[in-house]
Structure formats: structure tokens, C-alpha cells
Specification:
The complex is a heterodimer of chains A (280) and B (393). Chain A is α/β, with parallel strands linked by helices. Chain A contains 14 helices and 9 strands. Chain A has a 9-stranded parallel sheet with strand order 5-4-3-2-1-9-8-7-6. The longest helix of chain A is centred in the middle third of the chain and has 14 residues, at 153-166. Chain B is of the alpha/beta class. Chain B has 2 domains: 19-50 and 89-203, Rossmann fold; 56-87 and 208-391, Rossmann fold. Chain B has a 6-stranded mixed sheet with strand order 3-4-14-9-10-13, with helices on both faces. Chain B has a 4-stranded parallel sheet with strand order 7-6-5-8, sandwiched between helices. The chains are: A alpha/beta (280), B alpha/beta (393). Bound molecules: pyridoxal-5'-phosphate (PLP). Pyridoxal-5'-phosphate binds at residues 87, 113-114, 116-117, 192, 233-240, 306-307, 351, 353-354, 377-378 of chain B.
Chain lengths: 280, 393
């Protein structure tokens, strides 16, 4: 215990090896090895607007042609989220969504959905559930990766990476225009499916801003020739912003705009049209 | 320091920096620079000068004779209520604004519960001519209305936090969201020993002036710089940490931290974090917080806006876990009664936060010769409405 953390897992991980064996099996890596551009991912909050439609939404998104999904597990204090996803999280919690329930719902996941799935949420619910148990359970139901914006790299490496590795789960890191080159290199090293590129430092639900600076930023990232593909997220809401993002990255993620659709009547029937509107 | 933070920002199992990547550059810049800056001669000179001439330090250590008689010990009040702006919060605000200036920041944001930290921040921003935005829960804006007006008069913009319980926790969320969206020119002046490393350590250092002065003053009063007891209330824990700081390594000094029990620890309306909380992550640090089995943060309750917070700073979580300090709790009713008693015995109207620490005196068993220092963290002007409603004056 070097730093006085009650370290349950000792971090002497061979990331090289990891890339070769376990992770080759996961659906995300298969997807990224076969499809290199125009990838579309959709985020939604489990338990919103109704408690029991998690898999119905996933199924509809796959049918509409979405390449991979991010299913949010709600948290009471989502500091990285704007009003739309805050609202969906609040409603989902009111509806009774918990991690236990979500994993129950996902038990049939792989009978109904074949595309890769990531779980996205905040550190505290995962820590309460138990990170090891969380990783095991996620792998068991067929989840491929996890995005936890407030789980820091240091804690991930020293405490948790072993659990992710043992269960073949990819951990996704975020990069912003302010992230230093050294840090991006380190993130690239720790990543094994894709890097989540933010178009600007912002909470979710903003608008994609493309300025000269941003172009420079995307070019800077491209020039680094990272081993992992980049997917742009935060602020992608329509065909225009999606297409723009795809000029610079392998694909993009739509979150708040889709969550808004879920807040309307008859949302399941509208999913196909929404997705085709983003990527015809 | 035995109980201080390590290089990774941890106090035992608690602390760290659980922040999204968007906050990383700002927090990392602080981490790399804060010690160099605040230990610099020129910074210290300016900090000390402002504490002396502007804040009015040192704050007196007052031997409360009637309290001493009543409780059968030598009770001393460390008078942070006499500071400019009326509480200990100004010590930290002065330190952080000087730091922000040296980091070249052009805009300041802050969260506030009771409004004392918001007022302190608005004050130092006026002093330095820097733009100031304060986030405050909508409920707190109503119950601490005079402080909202004060902040506005001082030139700050006050933004209501309307999510969640609409109190301190939610104001902190909004401030963090603002900081995410303003990653270059903005400094976030956190008001307590909470948040990602290095905040808990930085704020504790700025507040440590409280115990630094107390030691010298106690030596003058009693011939011994060490008391038997040091007591303070705990919201996030900054006045308590400042009051404990220079006594931490003096193991014979008993440290007592008083949390807000609200309507009672088991009433479902409480903010007694160490009684009701479990280990987890809140506002960027691993600490003890009130939460459900599913890891959702539980909305706390206390009549005192400054103590109405579901967590405590990570250093407090550590001191609690290793038993270096004793954590106790006091209800709304006990605190209000203690506040009134302090008016009537000592002619001091304390903040309701402070009144929680005073109420704990009723439950202590002192020896006649014991020297007891209690931090009077703030004055009660902001709470007159609440006192008046409760007692019907
Ligand atoms: C007078 C006073 N005391 C105590 C507190 C609680 O904060 P902390 O625990 O950080 O000292 C506040 C917070 O607003 C306050 O105004």
C-alpha cells in the first residue's frame, strides 16, 4: 500500500497483454476493427421516461441502425450533465431505477440486442455496488465497456483496472481541448476501444462549437496518431453536428437530443425516424 | 504532520480527486502550484497584512466567565464572529483570492449555504475588482435573505440552484458545472474543506490561523498553550479544521466536532453525516456521506443552512475513522436554545451553525480545571429571522 489507500488490487498490469487476449473478444473492438467511420452511438438514461423500457429502447435503436449504445445508470448529483440529462436522471430515480434493477433488466440483453453496449454513470453508485461485483455483473449480462467520468485515472489504475481486465470490460476516458498531450498519450495507453473526445469543456447538452481553435484541436489529436479511434460526444444533436464531428473522428455520440425525444409521447415509434435524421 | 494529506491527496482512505476530465486541468494547475504560491514570502506578507488590517485579526480569545461558571470549566470563545463579514469564512476567501490573482484568473465562482461564504467571496472580489458569481440553493436564498442582499450590494451575481434539495449540495453541483464550462479564466473558491484535492488541504491551511492564534492566546491566558478540549461545529468542516489544525499532533488535546442532527438523528430529517453516512464519493473526494444502498446521495436537513450538507471533508472522515476526534450531533431545538443562552449569558448572538457547538457543552463532563476552547464560527445577524420565528420575540 504505497499511498495509504486500502488497495484491494495491486496494479502491475500488462496493458500490452490485455489488448491481445481478453479484449479481442469484446464487441466494441470487433466493431472498431471493421467499421472505421461514420459510427453513431446513442446515450439514454435507464428508467426514463418509464421504468421498464430499457431493452425496448435498445432494440429499437439497433433496428434503426445505431452502431453502439450507452446506457446511463442514474445518479442524484450528476455534475457533468446539463438540464436534460439531469432531469432524466431525477425521473429515473423517482421511477425506482437502481443498479440492481438495471442489471435485472439487462439479464435478457443478449437475447434481444447484438450491438455493443456501454454503461455510463458516476463513481459513487458503482463504488456502493462494489466495483468488482459491478464489473462481474456487467460482463455476465453482456456489457462491453464502462464510462465513469468522475473515476480518476490514478484510482482506476491503482484500485480497479484489474477488475475491468478480468471481465473483459473496456474503460472509456474523456479528453477535452485542455487535456495535455502527455495525458492524452497516457489515456491512449490505458484505453482499449475508443477515446471519448469532447468538442469543448462543457457539461452535456450544449451545442457543438466549431471554431478555428477547435479545428486546431482536432488536427492536433489526429496528428498524434493514437492507437485508439476517437468518438466525439457532448453537443451532437442533429445531422449537421454529426456530419461535422465525423469529419474529424470515427464517429459521434448523441445524448441530450435523444433523451429529449424520450420525453415525448409515443417515443418508441419515433426512434427510427430520429436516428435516420441524424445519419440518413 | 501526522494527520496531513499525502502526495496523492489522501488522508488514510479519504480524499483524492474524483473529478471528470473537464475539471482536471484546473485542479491539476492548483495541485502543482498551491504550495509554492502560498508558502512564498510575498504571498504570506500580503495574506497576513490583509488578515490584520482588513479582517481584523487576531480574533480575540475571550474567557467566557458566565459560561465557565455554568459548565464548571474554563470556557474560552475563539471569536471568529468578530471578523469582517461575520464569520471564519473570510480567512479562506482572502487566501484563495490572492491565489487566484497569482494564477491569473479573471473570474471567481463560489457556492454558499448560509451565505457567509458567499458574502466573504463577494467581499474579496470587490476588494480585488474581480467578477464574482455565487451559486446558492433556492431554499437557502429564502432562509438567509439578508446575505443574498449583501452579496448583491457587494457586486456579486447570485444564481439560484434549483435542482435536488435546492440547498448547499446543489449549489456546489452548479458551481462545478460552471467551472466545467469555464476551464481557463475562472477560479472556484470552495468554501469548506471539501472538494477534490488540493482543496481540503488548501482551505485547512488558510483556516489554520484560528488554532495558530489560539495557542499563543491560550498561553497568555492560562500559561499553557494546550487546552483539554477544542470544540467546533461541522458542516463541511472548515472552521473545525482551522480550530483543530495546530492541535492535531498534540494527542492529549481532545477534539470535539459537532454535526447537525436536524430533527433528530433517526428522524429522517438530519445532517449528522458520521452517524448516518457511509464511505463514498461526493463533490470530488472520497469521504463519508449520507446515501442510499444504491449510492444515491440523501438530501440532508438542518435548520442551519451552513450545516445542511450530506458529507464532511475527507480529513474529518479520516479523523473520525481513526478516532482522533470525537463526532457528536445536536438537534435544531438544542442548537436554538443554546444560541439564546449565549445571548443571555454572554451578550453574543451566535450563528445557528455555531450554536450547535455551544449546545454540545450541555452534554460534556468537564473537570473544574479543564480549559475548553470553542470556536464561535460566526455571528447570528443572518439568523435573526429564524431565531425570532422560533422564540417569538
Ligand atoms: C458561521 C458558520 N459556521 C459554520 C459553518 C459551516 O461550515 P464549516 O463546517 O466549513 O465551518 C458556516 C457555513 O456557512 C457558517 O456560516
Amino acid at each position: 500500500m504505497v499511498y495509504g489507500l486500502s488497495t484491494k488490487y495491486n496494479s502491475s498490469i500488462d496493458y500490452g497483454l490485455w489488448t491481445i487476449d481478453k479484449i479481442n473478444m469484446n464487441r466494441l473492438n470487433k466493431l472498431f476493427s471493421t467499421k472505421k467511420d461514420n459510427l453513431l452511438s446513442i446515450y439514454y438514461t435507464a428508467g426514463y421516461p418509464e421504468i421498464n423500457t430499457t431493452l425496448d429502447i435498445a432494440e429499437a435503436l439497433e433496428k434503426a441502425g445505431v452502431d453502439f449504445l450507452e446506457v446511463g445508470f442514474p445518479y442524484s448529483d450528476p455534475v457533468a450533465d446539463g438540464p436534460t440529462i439531469q432531469h432524466s436522471s431525477e425521473k429515473a430515480l423517482e421511477n425506482g431505477m437502481t443498479l440492481n434493477l438495471l442489471f435485472d433488466q439487462l439479464a435478457d440483453l443478449r437475447k434481444r440486442v447484438t450491438i455493443p453496449i456501454l454503461l455510463m454513470g458516476y463513481a459513487n453508485p458503482m463504488i456502493q455496488y462494489g466495483v468488482e461485483r459491478f464489473c462481474k455483473k456487467a460482463a455476465e449480462v453482456g456489457v462491453d465497456g464502462v464510462i465513469v467520468p468522475d473515476l480518476p485515472m490514478y484510482e482506476y489504475e491503482t484500485l480497479y483496472a484489474g477488475y475491468f481486465k478480468a471481465n473483459g470490460l473496456s474503460n472509456i476516458f474523456l479528453v477535452t481541448p485542455q487535456t495535455s498531450e502527455d495525458r492524452i498519450r497516457k489515456i491512449d495507453e490505458l484505453s482499449n476501444s475508443f477515446i471519448y473526445l469532447l468538442s469543448s469543456s462543457s457539461i452535456t447538452g450544449g451545442n457543438l462549437q466549431v471554431s478555428v481553435n477547435i479545428e486546431d484541436y482536432y488536427k492536433r489529436i489526429k496528428a498524434m496518431q493514437l492507437k485508439n479511434p476517437e468518438i466525439i460526444g457532448f453537443g451532437i444533436s442533429d445531422n449537421k453536428s454529426f456530419s461535422k464531428a465525423c469529419e474529424y473522428a470515427a464517429g459521434a455520440i448523441v445524448g441530450s437530443a435523444f433523451v429529449k425525444l424520450l420525453g415525448t409521447k409515443g417515443y418508441l415509434e419515433k426512434i427510427d425516424e430520429f436516428v435516420k435524421g441524424i445519419r440518413p | 504532520m501526522k494527520y496531513g494529506v499525502n502526495e496523492q491527496g489522501y488522508y488514510g482512505d479519504f480524499g483524492g480527486a474524483y473529478i471528470p476530465e473537464m475539471l482536471y486541468p484546473n485542479v491539476e494547475e492548483l495541485r502543482q502550484q498551491y504550495l509554492n504560491i502560498i508558502n512564498g514570502d510575498e504571498f504570506r506578507a500580503e495574506f497576513n497584512q490583509l488578515l490584520k488590517d482588513y479582517v481584523g485579526r487576531p480574533s480575540p480569545l475571550y474567557h467566557a466567565k458566565r459560561y465557565s461558571e455554568k459548565y464548571g470549566a474554563n470556557i474560552f470563545f475563539k471569536r471568529e464572529d468578530l471578523n469582517h463579514t461575520g464569520s471564519h469564512k473570510i480567512n479562506n476567501a482572502i487566501g484563495q483570492i490572492l491565489l487566484a490573482k497569482r494564477l491569473g484568473k479573471k473570474r471567481i465562482i463560489a457556492e454558499t449555504g448560509a451565505g457567509q461564504h458567499g458574502v466573504a467571496t463577494a467581499t474579496v472580489c470587490a476588494l480585488m475588482g474581480i467578477e464574482c458569481v455565487v451559486y446558492m440553493g433556492e431554499i437557502d436564498m429564502a432562509r438567509q435573505a439578508p446575505n443574498v442582499s449583501r452579496m448583491k450590494m457587494l457586486g456579486a451575481k447570485v444564481v439560484p440552484a434549483v435542482s435536488g434539495s435546492k440547498t448547499l449540495k446543489d449549489a456546489t453541483n452548479e458551481a462545478l458545472r460552471d467551472w466545467i464550462g469555464n476551464p481557463v479564466d475562472t477560479h472556484y473558491i470552495i468554501g469548506s474543506v471539501v472538494g477534490p484535492y488540493p482543496y481540503p488541504d488548501m482551505v485547512a491551511r488558510f483556516q489554520s490561523v484560528i488554532s495558530f492564534e489560539t495557542k499563543k492566546q491560550l498561553l497568555e491566558h492560562t500559561g499553557n498553550e494546550l487546552p483539554q478540549y477544542v470544540m467546533a461545529c461541522v458542516g463541511g468542516g472548515s472552521n473545525a479544521m482551522g480550530m483543530f489544525y495546530h492541535f492535531l499532533d498534540d494527542e492529549q488535546v481532545k477534539l470535539v466536532a459537532v454535526e447537525a442532527a436536524g430533527k433528530g438523528v433517526d428522524s429522517g430529517h438530519s445532517a449528522a453525516t458520521t452517524f448516518l453516512g457511509k464511505e463514498g464519493v461526493l463533490h470530488g473526494s472520497r469521504t463519508i456521506l449520507m446515501q442510499t444502498d444504491d449510492g444515491q446521495v440523501v438530501e440532508p436537513y438542518s435548520i442551519s443552512a451552513g450545516l445542511d450538507y450530506p458529507g464532511i471533508g475527507p480529513q474529518h472522515a479520516h479523523l473520525y475513522k481513526i478516532n482522533r476526534a470525537q463526532y457528536v450531533s445536536v438537534t435544531d431545538d438544542e442548537a436554538l436554545q443554546a444560541g439564546l443562552l449565549c445571548c443571555q449569558l454572554e451578550g453574543i448572538i451566535p450563528a445557528i451553525e455555531t450554536a450547535h457547538a455551544l449546545a454540545q457543552l450541555e452534554k460534556m463532563k468537564f473537570d473544574k480545571a479543564d480549559n475548553v476552547v470553542i470556536c464561535i464560527s460566526g455571528r447570528g445577524d443572518k439568523d435573526l429571522d429564524t431565531y425570532i420565528k422560533y422564540f417569538g420575540y
